Amino acid sequence: MSDRATLLAGLRELASNLRWSFDDRAGGLFEELDPLGWRASGRDPAVLLETIDDRRLELALAHPDFADRVAAAVDELEAYVTEPDTWYAGTDGDPRRTVAYLSAEFALADCLRVYSGGLGALAGDHLRSASDLGVPLVAVGLAYSDGYFRQHLDGSGWQQESPATNDFPSMPVRPVMARAAGDSAPERLTVPVELGDGTVQVVAWEVTVGRVRLFLLDTDVEGNAHHHRDITSQLYGGDNDTRLRQELVLGVGSVRMLDALGIRPAVYHLNEGHAAFAALERLRVHLADGAGFEDAVARVRDEVVFTTHTPVPAGHDRFEHGAAAWHLTPLAERAGVGFDQLWPLAVDEHGWWSQTVLAIRTSRSTNGVARLHGEVSRRMLAPVWGDRGADDVPIGHVTNGIHPGRWVGRELQKLYDWHLGPDWRTTVDPQLWQRIHEVDPAELWQAHRLARHRLIGEARERLLAQARRVGRGPDGFGLDPDALTLGFARRFATYKRATLMARDVDRLAAIIGDRDRPVQLLIAGKAHPRDEAGKHLIKHLVELSRDPRFKGRIAFIEDYDLDLARLLVSGVDVWLNTPLRPFEASGTSGMKAAANGVLNASVLDGWWDEAVADLAPKARVGFGWVIGDRSEDGDQDHRDGRDADAFYRVLTEAVVPTFADRDGDGVPRTWVQMMQDAIALLAPAYSTHRMVVDYVTGVYDRRPVDATADAGPA
Ligand SMILES: *Cc1c(COP(=O)(O)O)cnc(C)c1O
Fold first, then answer.
1. 565 touches ligand 1 (CB under 6 Å)
2. Does ligand 1 have an atom closer than 6 angstroms to the CB of 405?
3. Is residue 713 in contact with ligand 1, taking CB distance under 6 Å?
4. CA 122 / ligand 1 centre spacing (Å)
5. What is the pLDDT at residue 25?
6. Atom of ligand 1 nearest to the CA of 496
């Protein structure tokens, strides 16, 4: 391969499949081609290739092996998408049993801003693992033209929001076209969705994620009423009415779009209640096929499965009777039933239309996303089953995971490729990860140090740009690439208690300000635009970072996104998590950290609660630290005080001394052994490969209906 056209064609081929976003062997080529252009493009290969100048391409062609590596990556991609010998094929999985995975958000790449946080990250990793394992899965979401906002902080530390626009026509997504009749020009494939005030036409964009296809539904089409065109414009933006409209488009539209494409799923997986209206559309289809109402409901229950994602009540969508009736009556009429017949499927104990209740009553299984969350959900959702005690509520759990290839930083990727072999990216065999114990501690430490150095370099740059923009001095220059570095990044929801660590500023200052054992803390995260309380927490932390005692030691990095997330979870030494138990359903950023050998220090909530219970006994030294205990006694102020005290104690008594304890070569031996335990035990257990296997074998596969009662897999 030697000419410019061939090189560009190869790069375009790589850009057209989002596999580049979870395999650095392809993704890294774009950055290598033009590091500055790559940044300027917002890490968007399509934009990069559009704007790249000829000189860059000449340089790439003159490079001894760049063009060959592009060609090799194209071959590798081709081999990947056509590989017949997948995990799924190996289990004799039926390739025709298609799973439709429906979700309001997908975090695939920062240049495709159709996600806001954890739910999207999980959905994105679900697709990546389904692709790697060869599971016949298609996904449907919404094509938001305004993605979740970009975050900047003003001079006072107050969050400013700017739009993150998705311009689909110029993105690596394809419009879904209808097969043209005769020789008429091809047109967009369109499906109708009935709403209270008329029918909206829905089109789709197709995104390729390895072997998996994702369809993003869009109502911004000519011919739709003006106020219908922007139904899909904002992610979690509008009021309750917009939310209802969006969920009708997602639920009903996804079933119809897949049908129009000739895809006949055997299973519909509702990733959170947002997509629950899919069940009503399936009900309509079964009624149209001649089933009676009860029978039609039973058939729907046979094909739908539901994952609930949060114990926070505000996370469960509910609508007033009048609003639900108005928007659902046209669909009900088309199904030949009245709205009154649908109402009992969704009404909760307070008389609201609840998407969670609808999803539960129309699915054959409901699961939470960690063991503790399963328990909490059984208690919280028991009223849906009337008089049943929580122990008899048939809600199980499948603990979340993360896609290792997506989240491990490049330094550790190299080390894993070398010592574990490239299969670490796709294997479902936990044994492979045991080989990390054979790696020379000095080598593992060196790889991690390089990751930290890269993080600190990047953090300084970002902090400098942030400070310049608001006319301040360079706050970030105190950061030390060799200091013990703590990371805390997540949504600023109040139950996550981002400011718990600052409850006793003097104690925090004593830890952070230690001259002999320097400690620094990097913070990131967005507050929802309407969450004033969350914005105050951010401001509080920014102010703290400017306190002379913390200057250069605590830094808030703006605009938390996937890229920043990976930089942080691979470059810090310790990942902090201090939610109010039991409100963190699972949490996944700590899993990303663990796959990088980063040690978690966390409250016993979400996934950490079960990781500590199940796997800590198998660790040689320990894979992290527990903050506090399982007690949920006392009012919140009391609990905050107790957990903050536990936090300071864990840092001073365990984290700081273990980090400081070096051998003659400067390697912290015990620390590195802990890193090895974290990688060997947590990376395989909390990977989405394991999670997708659990879903396929325990949830997607048909099992006798009463078997769902025994709490499910995992
Ligand atoms: C992984 C991830 C999350 C979810 O992390 P939690 O631990 O569940 O808070 C949120 N946002 C981004 C950008 C992520 O990458």
1. yes
2. no
3. no
4. 8
5. 85
6. 9
Q: Are 251 and 346 in contact (CB under 8 A)?
A: no
| Burial state string for 109-131 with b = 16 or more CB within 10 A and e = fewer than 16 | bbbbbbbbbbbbbbbbbbbbbbb
Question: How many helices (H) and strands (E) are present in the chain, helices listed first?
Answer: 29, 20
Which mutation among 490, 560, 605 tests ligand 1's pocket best, with the greatest number of atoms within 8 A of CB?
A: 490
Write down the H helix ranges in 185-338: 226-229, 240-260, 277-288, 293-303, 321-334
Residue 204, token pair as written in the block: 């789709």
CA 561 to ligand 1: nearest atom = 13
State the distance from the centre of ligand 1 to the C-alpha of 498, rounded, in angstroms. Answer: 14
Residue whose pair of structure tokens reads 């936090």 in the numeric block: 647
Q: Which residues of the chain have pLDDT under 50?
A: 1, 703-714
Angstrom distance (rounded) from CA 508 to CA 519: 10
Distance CA 262, CA 334 (A): 22
Backbone angles phi, psi at 12, to 5 degrees: -65, -40
For residue 391, CA distances in Å to 176, 375, 473, 680 come to 46, 9, 58, 34
β-partners of residue 99 are 137, 267
Starting at the edge strand found earlier in the chain, the sheet holding 574-577 runs 554-556, 519-524, 484-489, 574-577, 599-603, 624-627
Of 172, 173, 210, 206, give the one whose Cα is nearest residue 19.
210
Cβ of 588 closer than 6 Å to ligand 1, yes or no, is yes
Helix axes 562-571, 441-469, angle to 10 degrees: 140
Q: What are phi and psi of 208, to 5 degrees?
A: -105, 125
Residue 605 beta carbon below 6 angstroms from any ligand 1 atom: no
- CA of residue 674 to ligand 1 center, whole Å: 23
Scan for tokens 């045991």, then name that residue: 434
> Does the CB atom of residue 560 touch ligand 1 within 6 A?
yes
Residue type, 256: R
Decide: helix, strand or coil at residue 23: coil
State how beta strands 554-556 and 574-577 pair. Answer: unpaired
Strands 353-354 and 318-319: antiparallel
Query: CA 660 to CA 581: how far, in whole Å?
Result: 31
309 in contact with ligand 1, CB cutoff 6 A: no
Residue 132 and residue 689 in contact, taking contact as beta carbons nearer than 8 Å: yes
List, in sequence order, every beta strand (DSSP E) within 293-444.
304-307, 318-319, 353-354, 365-368, 395-397
In tens, the pLDDT along 573-620 reads 999 999 999 999 999 999 999 999 999 999 999 999 999 999 999 999
Q: For residue 302, count CB atoms less than 10 angstroms from its CB and return exposed for 0-12, middle for 13-18, buried for 19 or more.
A: middle
**Structure token digits, residue 482:** 């060799």
Of the residues 589, 600, 603, 686, which should be mutated to test ligand 1's pocket, given the most ligand atoms within 8 Å of the CB?
589
State the DSSP H helix or E strand holding residue 100, giving kind and residue range, or none if neither.
strand 99-103
Distances (CA, A) of 240 to 324, 382, 487, 492, 534: 11, 25, 35, 22, 21
Residues 6+ apart with CB under 8 A from 448: 411, 412, 573, 596, 597, 675
CA-nearest residue for atom 1, ligand 1, is 589
